[in-house]
Design a protein that fits this description.
By secondary structure, the protein is mostly helical. It contains 30 helices and no strands. It has helices at about 1-40, 45-55, 60-75, 75-85, 95-105, 110-125, 130-140, 150-160, 165-180, 180-195, 200-210, 215-230, 235-250, 255-270, 275-290, 295-305, 310-325, 325-340, 345-360, 370-385, 395-405, 405-415, 425-440, 450-465, 470-485, 485-505, 505-510, 510-530, 535-545, 550-560. α22 (about 405-415) packs antiparallel against α23 (about 425-440) and α26 (about 485-505) packs antiparallel against α28 (about 510-530).
């Protein structure tokens, strides 16, 4: 009887060990599958499966680590930390979670704290282990404060352990790409894919390099090659969308065609990943780039149905409301978003709120709610201070105010626009800035603003420096100096205008607009000389009469001088 019991117990132990081994294999397979889901950017699916794994076995430290990483990909740092902290208590691979905590420290700018966490992870490595180095390198790359050189340095340690490992080579490719070393990135990606053809991302990144070099035709061909191999790999459709978006911006004649193609591919990307709130937000971000605000409003309202309290939805509702003509809705949504101190505010948030308030301040009868307008200007300035490239986007607003003869208000916008010397509209915005100030000071009820007029003179000077052949700017600069009472400079700039148009020849001089400005130049210069040099004054009045024999001002002035 005892023998029979012992025999059954022995068999039970064998079966139990076999069962446990089977479970371990299944869980390993599950984690490998999750890694593929993460790589394919199917984050909600990966989260669901990782939660199931740790729910079945809380000792799977790697699963907690991967779950924390997914939360970071989705910008949910609090949940990431909770997952990493739980992972530290696991019996297996707990040390990996120190790498995740290290990335959180990097995100906060605590490099020393991050390195301490990374060292704790390294201490648990076995002789042939190398993936810890890969994960540490990726923490350096994925941080909100990325350090690609540190990543390369760490990957060199992994290379010492296994220099042909495709995952190491793929990470090298990403690190070199981030460090703007395109040649080394290409070699690393190529070798990674040759070493393991299941690393579709490595093959896709070869197209990304071409996209970065603006070789859009070649990039699309590379992505098509990826699709021929792996048609269900979602990220390649996102890359196609981004490539066509950039292509459209670099080829204005085909902008509409390329943007339409970009949006089609992004929809394909969404269908290949998931329609979670996070993926919808990525879609919304792309719709903003593509300026498809009707679609953005639809997407924002769908997100609101999924999660009524997520604050980023207010951003999308605000942007789309402004672009679709709902000024009050834009102000309400963006005020709610910006006034919540827990939200990460970007420059565009302030810009859109400022633009919406300009619309609110400008009445249908062309009157102005000045306090609201002043709030708007402060918001627009704050946006450009945060992100100088936005200066190129406010010129049209300034022109609209200028055309409405709101010259002072237009000058405030153009003053912000010209704060960035690298703006593509720098020259034109300076011209409008100077003109806005000049015309504001020539209104019937104007009180001369000397400080503003000096700003106008500087703006005209910026135009001349950038484009000396812009002839009309000399006339406006001369007019500005006339308002400032500086006859010497007024005469100088009128003379420069005369010299430029004269050099262009008879055809230019015959143009009615040019003839009118020449008469203005001669008469005003003559008036400037009248009290100091009568000979010069008479000379210029006579030049006026040569162009316009009946000019009353010149005729009367000559009589007075004689």
């Amino acid at each position: 009887m005892n023998k029979l019991i012992n025999y059954k117990m022995k068999n039970f132990k064998v079966l139990s060990m076999a069962f446990m081994a089977s479970v371990s294999i299944m869980q390993a397979q599950d984690i490998d599958q999750v890694k593929k889901e993460i790589d394919a950017e199917q984050y909600d699916k990966a989260k669901k499966n990782l939660k199931a794994i740790v729910g079945a076995d809380s000792n799977k430290g790697e699963a907690y680590f991967l779950l924390g990483n997914v939360y970071l990909y989705q910008n949910i740092a609090d949940s990431a930390k909770i997952s990493y902290d739980k992972g530290l208590t696991a019996k297996n691979d707990a040390h990996l979670n120190n790498i995740g905590l290290g990335q959180l420290s990097l995100d906060k700018g605590d490099v020393a704290g991050a390195n301490a966490k990374f060292e704790l992870a390294k201490k648990e490595m076995k002789r042939k282990d190398f993936m810890e180095y890969v994960y540490i390198a990726r923490a350096n790359m994925n941080s909100v404060n990325p350090n690609y050189k540190n990543a390369i340095s760490v990957l060199n340690l992994a290379k010492e352990k296994n220099d042909q490992e495709p995952l190491v080579l793929l990470a090298f490719g990403d690190a070199y790409y981030g460090d703007k070393n395109q040649n080394e990135a290409y070699r690393a990606y190529r070798n990674a894919y040759q070493g393991d053809s299941s690393l579709i991302r490595a093959k896709m990144q070869l197209g990304v390099l071409l996209k970065g070099a603006k070789a859009y035709t070649e990039a699309v061909a590379a992505y098509d090659d990826v699709i021929a191999t792996s048609p269900s790999y979602g990220p390649v459709y996102r890359e196609l969308a981004e490539t066509y978006y950039l292509w459209g911006n670099n080829q204005p004649s085909k902008y509409d065609e390329h943007i339409k193609q970009a949006l089609t591919y992004y929809e394909k990307y969404m269908s290949m990943t998931d329609y979670s709130l996070d993926s919808r937000m990525r879609h919304a971000d792309f719709l903003i780039l593509a300026k498809d605000y009707k679609a953005l409003e639809i997407e924002a309202n769908k997100m609101k149905q999924l999660d009524k309290v997520n604050p980023r939805i207010l951003r999308y509702l605000g942007y789309s409301a402004y672009e679709n003509g709902n000024t009050d809705g834009a102000i309400e949504s963006l005020n709610s978003f910006i006034n919540d101190s827990s939200n990460k505010i970007i420059a565009q948030d302030y810009m859109y709120l400022g633009l919406a308030k300009v619309k609110k301040a400008t009445k249908a009868d062309d009157s102005l709610d000045l306090p609201v307008f002043n709030e708007a200007v402060a918001l627009i300035k704050k946006a450009v201070d945060m992100e100088p490239t936005l200066s190129a986007e406010i010129g049209d607003l300034g022109k609209k105010l200028y055309e409405q003869k709101m010259f002072k208000e237009a000058s405030e916008i153009f003053e912000i626009a010209t704060s960035n010397k690298d703006s593509k509209n720098y020259l034109l915005d300076n011209f409008y800035l100077g003109n806005s100030i000049y015309f504001d000071n020539t209104k019937a009820d104007a009180v001369k603003d000397t400080i503003a007029l000096q700003k106008a003179d500087i703006a005209f000077g910026n135009v001349i420096t950038a484009s000396p052949a812009t002839q009309d700017v000399y006339v406006y600069r001369a007019r500005t100096q006339s308002l400032l009472g500086n006859d010497e400079l007024m005469i100088k700039y009128y003379q420069q205008y005369i010299d430029i148009v004269t050099q262009k020849g008879a055809e230019e001089l015959a143009k009615p607009a040019v003839k009118g400005k020449l008469i203005e130049s001669y008469n005003t210069m003559a008036a400037g000389y009248a009290n100091t040099d009568k000979v010069k004054a008479l000379e210029f009045f006579n030049k006026t009469l040569a162009l316009d024999p009946g000019n009353a001002y010149a005729t009367q002035s000559i009589k007075s001088l004689k």
